Amino acid sequence: MKTDFDVIIVGGGPAGSSAASYLAKEGLSVAVFESEMFPRPHVGESLVPATTRVLLETGVMPKIEEADFPKKYGATWTTPSKHAVMNQPSLSMDFAVDGHAEVRFGERAQEGVDRDYTYHVDRGKFDLILLKHAEELGAKVFQGVRVSKVDFDDPEQVTVTVRIGPRSTDFTAKVVVDASGRQTLIGRQQKIKIGDPHFDQYAVHTWFDGLDRGALCQDPKEVDHIQIHFLPMNDTWVWQIPITDTITSIGVVTQKKQFAELNADREKFFWKFVGTRRDLTEELKKCERVRPFRAEGDYSYSMEQVAGDRYVLIGDAARFVDPIFSSGVSIAMNTARLATRDIIAAAKDGKFDRSRFAEYERLQSMGTRNWYEFIQIYYRLNILFAEFVQDPKFRIDVLQLLQGDMYEESPKALVAMRESIKEVENDPGHVWYPYLSNLRTSVPTNA
C-alpha cells in the first residue's frame, strides 16, 4: 500500500531530529511534525559523551563544532560544608570523603566517541542545528503544526492527523515514531503511560550573566564542568551550566510537593531554596538575571511498552526520571540511534509489527533500568556517590554511567551500591543513617 511517507516522526527535538537523520541517510522518506517554531528555549543544556557518537554518525558534528558551544570536560558535585561530618566512618571503603566529587570524561575510552569532552549548549541553537541537518539529509520538516491523533485501525498503515492553523489534515505512513517529549502523545492516547511512584521532581531555572564559575570549585580545572550543588535538604540540588563565556544556566530541582507546600511563585521559590547555600547565593547576587524564571514538571513516568505494531517511542516520550546526570539529551539521541536500527531493518522486509522492534525494546529497557536504579540510589544517599566515584575499584564503572554508556548489563558499581545502601538502612546507628532520604530504592519491572 502506498503511503505519504515511510516514517512519520512526531516531535523535532534531539530525539526526533536524530531519528530523522538516521532514517533519511538510509533513503527512507521521512516527515517530522514539530508543534513549535525553532529556535525556542529548552531545558537540558548540558550533554554527556554518549551524544558524540550520534553527532558523528549522523554527520552533524561539523556544524556543532562550528557553533562553538562551550566544551564540557567533566562534572563536579559540591555539598554544604556541614556534610563533611559524614566522612567518618565510611562504609567498607578504605578512605574518607567530604562530599565533593568530580569526574573527567577522558578517564575512560568510549565506543564511538573520539574526544575527551562534550558540550554545554544553548538548546535553542543546538536543536535547530539538528533539525535543519535532518532536513538537509532529505527529511520533510513541518514546524508550527501539532499532531492531534495517531490512528492505527488500518493494519497496513498509520494515519496521523495534523492540525495546521484552523484546519486538520491527515498523512499516512508505514510506521510512526513518537518523539513528542513530555507530551507523550502515543503514551496518553494508548493509555500506556504510568506515573512514577518514587520521583515527582520540579525545577525552576533561569540564566545569569557574570557568574564567577570557579567560586565553588576546589580545582580551577573544574570551571568548565557542569556543577551540581547540593542543598542542605533531601532530594534538592542546583545545576550550574556554562552557556556562553559569561552566561550561566542555574536551576533548582526538588520534590514538587515542596513547591506546592510553599505556595510560592517561581522567583520566591528559587531564592528560598538557593538561599540555603550561602556561598552560592552570594555569587548569584552579584550577577544579572537575563531570562525569566521557567518551570519544569512532570519529570517522572514510564510506559507499559515502548513499541507496538507500527509505532516506536523514543526519548522523553518513552521514559523520563530526573535530570541529575544530564541524561535527557543523551537518552533522546541514543534511543533514536537504537530504534532506527530496527526501523531500517523492518523497512527492508516491509513489516512493522511489534516483534520487529524487540531488540530496541530490550536495549531501552536495560539502559533505563540501569539509569533508574543509579539515580534512585543517588537520591537515597547522595554522599555514597561521592565515595564510589573516588574509589579506584568503582570509579570507571561509575564514569561509564555518567558518560551515558548504559545499554548493557548492570555495572559492578551498581551491585556494590545496593549492598552499601542496605548496610546503612539496616544500621540505625550508622553515622550516615540520618542522611538517608525518603526515596525508596526498589526498581519496578517497568523501569
Automatic annotation (TrEMBL):
Note the Pfam families from the entry: FAD_binding_3
The enzyme's main class, written as a single word, is oxidoreductase
Q: What is its EC number?
A: 1.-.-.-
Q: PANTHER family this protein is in?
A: FAD-BINDING DOMAIN-CONTAINING PROTEIN (PTHR43747:SF5), FAD-BINDING PROTEIN (PTHR43747)
**Which stretches make up the FAD-binding domain?**
5-361
Give the similarity note. Belongs to the flavin-dependent halogenase family. Bacterial tryptophan halogenase subfamily.
> Key word Lyase present in the record?
no
Cite the entry's keywords alphabetically.
Oxidoreductase
Origin, by domain of life? Bacteria
Q: What is the protein name for this chain?
A: NAD(P)/FAD-dependent oxidoreductase
* GO MF entries: oxidoreductase activity
